[in-house]
């Protein structure tokens, strides 16, 4: 469960007022924060504490994570000249702390560690919009008016994502997840033409070196394309049922998801009802990793999440409606 | 094109600092603002200048439209006791200005007038969240934890929407559009159980008294259900191609949409390319009303929109790629 930490009191106790980008640079702290939800909930995998803008920040883009808002870029990318603000990521030099955190975690963990990176489109959207966006107007304007710059930027960001993931795998990450959180804002035609090739370079670059999970929100119309980008597991949000996702992408891909995080806030009883339905659907598909359909919401009650994890562990097919 | 007015200089000239809710109460002003985009763009229909919270505001809910944010409710609805804050809408008494605006417009317009209302779920989400929401946690919590209150609220809001629409039709509106803008935040199971029955009461209540358009954003997974709620036209946002929408709902329903509003901001050339694709898809479906897939964005260039309207009017099937 991504961002499972932020609803925990032990997380708030250990995290001082430094920014996430600063916390990520402290391997002891980053490892501890990664371990907290594993200890508390007994989940079956850990996901590295990091942020999708860590690599671009590390190579010099002036970016900060503003609480309650998200990544904010001091000078947004808009022109061909902005391409010079990026360079290839050298993980050993630029993000040694990420490598160190992975190594520390591998000593501590008895469950697999999932490394991660932001997909080129989603990272580009932060760079171009200058922060979180509702309409992605600048990003879409760039792709539709200056393809050369757009594809050059996608190329740079795919190299950065791939290098970062490879370094995490080399350090011991057992699987990777590529977050294209906002791909669902695009029409399928735009996704296929403007985004898919760069994403494919990342996922095919990983190849068989680690199991790959590909995730976005509101991507019901894109699932076949996102599966075909070269992944082993496809993340699905709650808007698309696993049954529909299964019909669209077939049994070649495992599915991950897809409880609505808001239902966890509604309480354990509604969460169990929805979870049982999802587990039944997942069992019919075959390969299924139970998860929320998006990150854990900050106001989530850790007690409900703990009970939900137990419920999933104890559940057997056919035992619920 | 909904919200086509707000990008116009003549709109900004006529709208003083009063709130939209105040402007709606001035029939001369509301009619003029409705007419502006029709004059400027030569579109084939007018959509009434109003807001989906006008009826609940008129019956006493303390609500204001905050610029750049949206409707903000002073005291959000959370409990069964809040149901007493609503009562049936009596349009002649509560919203006589809406009726008057429609009558004024019918004298002026040579194109059809589309009346409108907010669908029960979307209006409820504002009442419960207290304003625009990203995750709809309070709304989803209420539906999942207190069905009795939820369904009572849906019932009240469906009566209010239906009364408002009926009064607009009686005054002369030629068609109506029901906006369930945020329905796409729900899983299909939740939509079907918690929302569809109330929406159906509104649309079936209108019946054949006027053509009905049913619209939401990000509703690709809900299209069959939204069509089956009792509509003649189904609005589709840009995420779902008209070809896919056509395959899902069949030829019994006309489709409306679905140019990405952000592509209009990219400029006339990309907008034409996308529009031609949409028009070809719409022509293959049969009944098609060209429109944006969501409201006009405030930063839109009116010149581009005007050129786009001409392009649509002059376009003939098979003439573009």
Annotated CATH topology of chain A: TIM Barrel
Structural class of chain A: alpha/beta
Outline of chain A: globular
The CATH architecture designation of chain A is Alpha-Beta Barrel
Percentage of helical residues of chain A? 40-55%
Query: How many strands, which pairing sense, and closed or not: the largest β-sheet of chain A?
Result: 7 strands, parallel
Concise structural overview:
2 copies of one chain form a homodimer. Chain A is built from 15 helices and 9 strands.
Structure description:
The structure is a homodimer of 321-residue chains. The first copy, chain A, is α/β, with parallel strands linked by helices. Chain A has a single domain, classed as Alpha-Beta Barrel (TIM Barrel). Helix content of chain A is 50%, strand content 12%. Chain A contains 15 helices and nine strands. Chain A has helices spanning 9-14, 20-24, 27-41, 54-58, 91-94, 96-108, 120-129, 137-145, 147-171, 188-206, 223-228, 242-249, 261-266, 268-285, 302-314; strands spanning 46-47, 63-66, 70-73, 113-118, 175-179, 212-215, 233-235, 254-259, 288-292. In chain A, the strands form two sheets. Chain A has a seven-stranded parallel β-sheet. Chain A has a two-stranded antiparallel ribbon with strand order 2-3. In chain A, a hairpin with a 3-residue loop joins strand 2 and strand 3. In chain A, helix 6 (96-108) packs parallel to helix 9 (147-171). Chain A is globular and about 60 Å long. Chain A starts with 8 loop residues before the first helix and ends in a 7-residue tail after the last helix.
């Amino acid at each position: 469960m991504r961002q499972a930490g932020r609803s925990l009191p032990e997380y708030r106790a250990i995290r001082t007022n430094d920014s996430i980008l600063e916390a990520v640079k402290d391997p002891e702290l980053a490892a501890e924060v990664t371990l907290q939800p594993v200890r508390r909930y007994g989940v079956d995998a850990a996901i590295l504490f990091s942020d999708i803008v860590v690599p671009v920040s590390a190579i010099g883009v002036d970016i900060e994570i503003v609480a309650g808002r998200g990544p904010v870029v001091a000078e947004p990318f808009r022109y061909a000249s902005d391409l010079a603000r990026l360079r290839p990521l050298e993980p050993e030099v630029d993000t040694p702390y990420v490598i160190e955190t992975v190594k520390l975690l591998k000593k501590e963990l008895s469950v697999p560690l999932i490394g991660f990176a932001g997909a080129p489109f989603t990272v580009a959207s932060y760079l171009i919009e200058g922060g979180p966006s509702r309409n992605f107007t600048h990003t879409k304007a760039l792709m539709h008016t200056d393809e050369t710059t757009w594809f050059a930027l996608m190329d740079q960001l795919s190299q950065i994502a791939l290098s970062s993931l490879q370094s995490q795998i080399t350090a011991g990450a057992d699987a990777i997840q590529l977050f294209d959180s906002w791909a669902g804002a695009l029409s399928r035609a735009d996704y296929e033409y403007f985004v898919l090739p760069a994403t494919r370079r990342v996922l095919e670059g990983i190849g068989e070196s680690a199991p790959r999970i590909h995730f976005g929100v509101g991507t019901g119309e894109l699932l076949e394309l996102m599966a075909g980008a070269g992944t082993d597991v496809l993340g699905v949000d709650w808007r698309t049922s696993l049954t529909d996702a299964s019909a669209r992408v077939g049994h070649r891909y495992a599915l991950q998801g897809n409880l609505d995080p808001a239902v966890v806030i509604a309480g354990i009883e509604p969460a169990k009802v929805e979870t049982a339905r999802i587990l039944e659907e997942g069992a019919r598909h075959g390969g299924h990793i139970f998860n929320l359909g998006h990150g854990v919401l900050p106001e989530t009650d850790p007690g409900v999440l703990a009970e939900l994890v137990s419920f999933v562990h104890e559940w057997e097919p056919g035992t619920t409606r």
